[in-house]
């Protein structure tokens, strides 16, 4: 299992502190795999039809939350790869709401979304295996803020934990 030390303050903007506080330890790969199992078990434990119902008018459905998680993880992984490879250009931000609307996740089966999530996680673990250790601390720019690949990688399980708590509490 791949271990990665947690990022230190200054490796990321304050915006991401909420997510990074959701993580612990240094066994990154183990956390990703455990989270993957928890998500699949959580969705499998629910009755049919719940994935298409928001908990409140104007909120995302569980399918949309899952689609958002997948999109965000892909974006963070892309940013981490770019910066780890020495990209000097500032990487763009993204507005999550149009991504969810344009993702049309309600038309995607929950089985396909879960398969997509698992594949994304396995792809992330695979990418991590070929990133040189020193590349995790290179500093780049995303959405106008300085950030390291190490921080971007740790944001992924933190962001996931944030949304899984919401799913468990609201659904």
UniProtKB/TrEMBL annotation:
Record-linked InterPro entries? DinB-like, DinB/YfiT-like
**Superkingdom of origin organism:** Bacteria
Q: Which organism is it from?
A: Algoriphagus halophytocola
Q: Which Pfam families match?
A: DinB_2
What start and end residues bound the annotated signal peptide? Answer: none
- Residues in DinB-like domain copies: 31-166
Protein name as annotated: DinB family protein
């Amino acid at each position: 299992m791949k271990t990665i030390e947690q990022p230190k303050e200054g490796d990321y903007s304050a915006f991401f502190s909420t997510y990074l506080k959701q993580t612990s330890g240094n066994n990154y790969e183990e956390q990703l795999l455990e989270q993957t199992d928890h998500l699949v078990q959580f969705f499998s434990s629910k009755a049919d039809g719940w994935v298409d119902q928001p908990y409140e008018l104007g909120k995302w459905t569980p399918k949309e939350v899952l689609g958002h998680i997948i999109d965000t993880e892909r974006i963070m992984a892309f940013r981490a790869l770019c910066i780890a490879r020495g990209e000097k250009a500032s990487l763009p931000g993204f507005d999550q709401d149009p991504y969810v609307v344009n993702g049309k996740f309600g038309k995607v089966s929950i089985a396909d979304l879960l398969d997509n999530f698992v594949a994304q996680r396995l792809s992330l673990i695979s990418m991590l295996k070929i990133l040189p250790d020193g590349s995790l601390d290179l500093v780049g720019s995303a959405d106008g803020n300085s950030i390291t690949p190490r921080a971007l990688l740790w944001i992924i399980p933190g962001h996931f934990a944030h949304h899984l708590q919401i799913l468990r509490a609201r659904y």
